[in-house]
Amino acid sequence: MGQKLTRREFGKLFAAGAAGSALGAFGGVTPLFAQQKRVVVIGGGFGGASAAKYIRKLDPSIAVTLVEPASTFYTCPFSNWVMGGLKEMKDIAQTFDVLKNKFQVEVIHDTATEIDAAKNTVKLKGGKTLNYDRLIVSPGIDFNYDAIEGYSEEVANSQMPHAYKAGPQTELITRQLSELKAGENVLICPPDNPFRCPPGPYERASLVANYLKKNKPGSKVIILDAKEKFSKQGLFTKGWEKLYGDVIEWRAASMGGKVLSVDSAAMTVETEFGPEKGGVINVIPPQQAGKIAFNAGLVDASGWCPINPITFESTIHPGIHVIGDACIAGKMPKSGFAASSQGKVTAAGVIRLMQGKVPAPPSLVNTCYSLVGPGYGISVAAVYKLTSDGIVGIEGAGGLTPMDADDDQLTEEATYARGWYNNITQDIWG
């Protein structure tokens, strides 16, 4: 996923950020400075809502239209807490009222179905066509259901939810856990990299184990992993041993973890080591950029969207910026905080481009908290800069919860996690 650049290519990025963009942004539809500029943003999640709000905050002269199907957006961060019984759906619900009423963002609850990069237009499912001077696409992820035999969107919606987009499947898996018979196991099947929120499946395993330990004696969590290692592995493993004993079992891909097929009728998954039965089965399939990115031809052979790392402008279609989980952002993980950081950087870059100025190289940041137990938190943070190797972490900036953190520190991390969520959601939607 990294973007190794030659020195010559790196030097050209700055010029490309302005010159190439000018062609895409101002090419014929709207004369420069002749009327109010308009930015259309597709996707009201962490990236898109941040970009929409911060364009209006930084330059109220620019009209911003945000296209988002849902009138209430449920955040993936903290959806594991709902499954673990620590939060309710209403606690992770965000609306767009403040963006509309305080920041005068025009919010249209519809689905973008088509982008015409030559005409600078976006067509909506409801029939409306929007014109833009610049377009920001933040479509999140889609799922490659065909990668696992027997798995499908229908199976995910009815029996084996991935619950990797917060909403009805979050409620489904929460209900399945409450109906689980004592002694039955929960299977969690994370995909190979890259995917949204790398620590997510392991926080989920932790909080489900916490629930099972209290409510379903004899039940355990078995993680069937498509990988050989995972994010924050040492910290998670230490916490599991301390809090849950043998309630959590993790199997690497080479140890029978890789899921080859599923049988939703029998509630089993097939691995290289044979079948495994679960009372609840959480299959998280391989992922790719959201559907509109494919429809618009913004993806490359990897299934993700290549971008200019200064402006997050598509290297395929000038004038269109791609942020969040869908884009290839060097060493940055696919996370809500990273998407928000990219949204703010892109907002500033778009404004400078509309002013005929050259965007500055970005500084980006990611911070991620995970709960291992209700009073046991861990975190990772990093600051990123642009180099000839693309977007990379700055050595010595950020950090990870120390392996020798004592109980007080781990409790503080859990408290910080709650503050993290409150702060970032207030920053974006508040």
Would you summarize the structure shown here?
The protein is α/β, with parallel strands linked by helices. It has helices at 7-26, 46-58, 79-83, 97-101, 153-158, 168-179, 200-215, 233-243, 291-295, 336-354, 407-429; strands at residues 38-42, 63-67, 72-74, 93-95, 106-108, 112-116, 121-124, 129-131, 134-137, 141-143, 186-189, 221-224, 248-251, 259-263, 268-271, 274-277, 280-283, 287-289, 307-308, 313-314, 320-322, 364-373, 376-387, 390-393, 399-400.
What does this structure look like?
By secondary structure, this protein is an alpha/beta fold. About 5% of the residues have low confidence.
Number of strands: 25
End-to-end span in angstroms?
Answer: 33 Å
Measured as a percent range, the helix fraction is 25-40%
Rg over CA atoms: 22 Å
Share of β-strand residues: 15-25%
Largest sheet: 5 strands, parallel
Describe the global form: globular
- Assembly state: single chain
- What's the number of helices? 11
Counting helices, strands and paired strands, the structural category is alpha/beta
**Poorly predicted parts:** 14-33
Mean pLDDT: 93
Spatial order of the strands in the main sheet? Answer: 5-2-1-9-21
